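Retro notes - structure team

What went well: the batch runner handled both jobs without manual restarts.
What didn't: labels got mixed up in the shared folder, which is why I'm recording both outputs here explicitly, each with its sequence directly above its tokens.

Job 1
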Amino acid sequence: MRAVFLVVLAAGCGFKVGGTVEPDSGGHDAPPGDVAFDAPADQAIDDAPRSWWDPAWAHRRRITIDSGMLAGDVTDFPVLVRIPAASLAGNIQSDCDDLRFIEADDVTPVAMELDTCGAGSGADTTVWIKRTLVQAASPHRLWLYYSAGGNDVSNGAAVFGSGGAGYESVHHMGVTADVTGNGHGLSAQGGPTATAGQISQASNFDGVDDYYSLSNGDSDFDFTTTMSASAWVKVGAFTDQWQAILAKGDNAWRMHRGDTTNGVGFGTTSSSVHDDLNGSTNVNDGAWHHVAIVMDGAKKYLYVDGIEDEQRAYTLTLQANSRGVRIGMNQDASPNRFWEGQIDEVRISAVARSAAWISAEQLTGVSSTFVTIGDDEPF
């Protein structure tokens, strides 16, 4: 029966049996990296007769996303898939280039970006995939295929950039690149050190002279009436007033310690008038916290751990300046309000993210049940 099945696939679906070339959405062999990422809406994997995306990929697992855990619908949202090392042991390339996420239709590739590859190290493998999730349509399912001689199809821009969620800049903190493809790479100053993060690898800042500057296009971050920014932070005790997490200076916008409080603040400047919204949730407890700021043209918001912490009306236009964005420092301040603690997964956008989106960012970083991985199914 297996021989018959292979013939049907090869003749009817455009598969290259035993090879490493993958079919595109039209059923033709696609050149490496030229993969269609138009994903259909939520769909179920039912008990219909089993089909297979490509027999060259000898193993697969069912991925289930519990959309019912969301606070609302999200479109083109980056979902974190954390794959335990034991799940892929002995059946994956050392560089993880053979990982493929395929829609429930067994045909359509899913946009993905490889964050960390744990193959051979005993560590988890972390991958971001682009998903449109409907809260009422839970569960949402797709496939993870592996075990083949595949080429690298990791594409951060398709998940986070103009082809995905539309961030201006995204930094996993384990690498210096801006994974959106917008070219805002990190340049280390002082000497932030690598440490284990909430997602994968984070950076540790000493509070003295450690920070990152973002390159190539400071004007790209001159937002006017809408913006969002988020990060994971870990701090044991604050040591300085207004310590900066992420800032374009005192004359534009900044996310920082709220004055001398134990919470997070969202500072903005419009027509030389400073406005500081300070949160009420303590984050100086030595644990990881997801923090986010949002401005939508009518209000400004602070979120901690996916929950709205504070808000107030704000209809002014943000002031532009010639300053670059800094992670862990505010270059307009004297002293520079260096961050002492750890920072992971920094994201900046000109878009005002919804409360559901911010909640989902936090959820995908902490929940062990939001995304689950099924048993191995060999071909």
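Job 2
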Amino acid sequence: MNFRKLVVTITLFTVFISGCQSMRTREGAIEEITGIDPIIEKINFDETVAISWIYDAKNGNITALGNIWRDRVAKGLKDHDIRIKGRKDVVLLIDDMESFGSGKAEKDIWEKAGADIVVTGTYRIICKGGDAGKILLYLKALRIEDAELIASSEWAETLGPDWRPLASNIRGNVYQKKFQTIIAPENIKKQPFLSARLNSSKASYQAGDNGQIHIQTDPGAYLYLFNLTADNTVTLLYPNRYCKGAPIVGKEFVFPKECAKDIELEFYPLNPDEICRESVVVVASTEKLDFSFVPFQSNDIYHWGRGEDIKKIYNILQQFDCWNKVSLNYTVGPACKK
């Protein structure tokens, strides 16, 4: 029998920084904080501040370099007698507050941050030939009570000589965290029931293992299966060119078994010698959604950078209130035993 293979591959984090091969850098420059004065001027003496991520604006990566600047900002505020609360990863809620105003978002942010103001931001690496490497920082401060952007600041600093390994040290990705933690609005009547599991009880696979995804949902719901790859991009598992997708007839759907008889789902790591982690996200919706722009990987092993921007998936789901989501994390590699 001639099988068409649907291959899912876990990829390793890879960072390419180009155009900066011959830079002059100076020691200790990263210690200087010169651009936070506009924010300091807007903070009242009795207000407290929580500092969220400062992440790579280009791809949303949370890196050791960004965390260093997070420390620098905290120190700069403390040097001006501003009270700093413990670190809080609340940037997801901040984005919601900026988009939709205060209300529930305000309450959630205040409870999680335990502060009156949240400071967050992004950075970009500036590389211009033989010039010294520089980092361009953008910070913003939001007052939680009224969802007001009270101040922002953008400035450049010269980088120290160790910036490359720090920028390559990835601690997470903002958009992947959004995709993993996004919660559909509380209109329960519109949300379909959803339960999902992998065929491996330990959610671990060796290279070349076949997998299945067992899904239970309400009849009439539309299903969408995404693979979140380790390079922070997304590929589409279902629907695909072999099975276009239709409202679920029964309460259980097994992928790829009920998709097409001649399709198999195989797991591979990019590096045969390493154990890798990824996830499959199952979305069930009462309305038909359009994810046709997301690449579908078949008859080939996934390679770095072939997926779609995870932010686009997040933005589509934010427009609807008729869906539910389950994330299935798994590992694959030589030490993964069934």
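One thing worth noting from job 2: The helical segments are 37-40, 64-78, 91-100, 104-113, 163-168, 174-181, 310-317.
We'll revisit the folder naming next retro.
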